[in-house]
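Sample entry copied in:
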Amino acid sequence: MSTKITQDEINKVVWKACDTFRGVVDPSQYKDYILTMLFLKYVSDVNKSKYAEYLERYEGDEERAQRAMRRERFQVPETSSFYYLYDNRNAVNIGELIDIALVDLENANREKLNSEDGSGIFRNISFNSSNLGEVKDRNVRLKQLLEDFADEKLQFDESHLDNNDVIGDAYMFLIEHFASDAGKKAGEFFTPKEVSTLLAKLTKSAPGSRICDPTCGSGSLLIKAGREVGSDNFSLYGQELNGSTWALAMMNMLLHGFDSAVIRWGDTLRNPKLKDGDALMKFDTVVANPPFSLEKWGADEAPNDQYNRFWRGIPPKSKGDWAFISHMLEVANEHGKVGVVIPHGVLFRGASEGKIRQQTVEENLLEAVIGLPANLFYGTGIPAAIAIFNKAKKGDDVLFIDASREFENGKNQNRLRDADIDHIVSTYRAFADGKLPAGVAEEKYAYVATRKEIEENDYNLNIPRYVDTYEEEAEIDIVAVQQETDALETELAEVQAKMKEYLKELGM
């Protein structure tokens, strides 16, 4: 093929491949089959292209070419190649062959495709599962899937791609669309791209930064935060509780070329895995969209936490929001910045949460609170907010933004437009640069509160306490309303009189 394949072309082909599973398994499940096959096709194409390149370089010397292949990013055993599976697509045990291929691929790439405890990224998926139907039906579906991915447009080596991010972005495209199909379950693995973009811009990291997402899901937010640096000089770290979602994050990093990203599998609150020796690893930037008001997060173990993360107070058993924030604050270094998506209750609930909130304000960690529109997130219509904490904050004031009314209406979900994101970010940066004095920064949108004001409000951070969005109702012209009412009554009387005449003519 002489022409480059565009992002849009690849997106259309891989989305069409999803038809193989629609109506058979739930989107929250079939995403694993599609995304795994996309990953397998990618590593197979890259290796196939590299081998051809080495054969040409060494004038057909297969032994030298094979030696050179041992130094490549991925090792792909012959029976793990997509093309081997495609050639055997009519085999009665094709599901089993795919499963074996994935295990062998993991074993050949242990450092990249396995967790710390040795669990492979394909551990939770089986193409030989009864979830895909009875054997005969399953074989038909798998054959179709292999044929879909054999489409000539899906040539994933660099010579055929429009840019190096095409495959990774196709992966993100699929994750986003699976999220919209999967509904409530999607919140476990995906943050809407516009929210990820906003959070990445608000916490923009400098070159050389360590960036962490302790509840990283499929890794979309972490990747956005890395891209915002503007160079390749950064490192990514994440932890994810759900095993299937951790696997998505691992593949996502590899498809975007972040081979050195460290993504751990486990419970961040009960068992943080990102450590330097026995101490928690420290980061320049910490971003997250944790599960809202998580129950049973580990309150009973928190008082004895070996890392003393909850010294400001123990959040309630039924609401883990401040537990995640406490963790994020503790792993941010001395000049670190924290950006976290939160439910509004975090801003005003009392008891232990109120005490923790007060402590963070008194430490002068809280920099900004930004209210978002409702219905932005998969699985919940409730409005959320973003809290920005900064250990290198300038001044004592706190910026409050009410961005809840600036969005694009969607059929199933609302969306932040570029202009909405720019409005939030420019306001925040003006504040961070010391250009916004205390008081109203923008009518019905932004307010800069002093520490004293927040103290007088008993450390309640509810945005309406600071940003006045009240709209005066238009004055009602009583005379005009009465005249309009009289006219309607006259018109109604005329219609009723005509109806009586018609009924009389009809003998009724």
Notes: Residues 200 and 227 are 8 Å apart (CA to CA). The domain at 185-465 is CATH 3.40.50.150 (Rossmann fold).
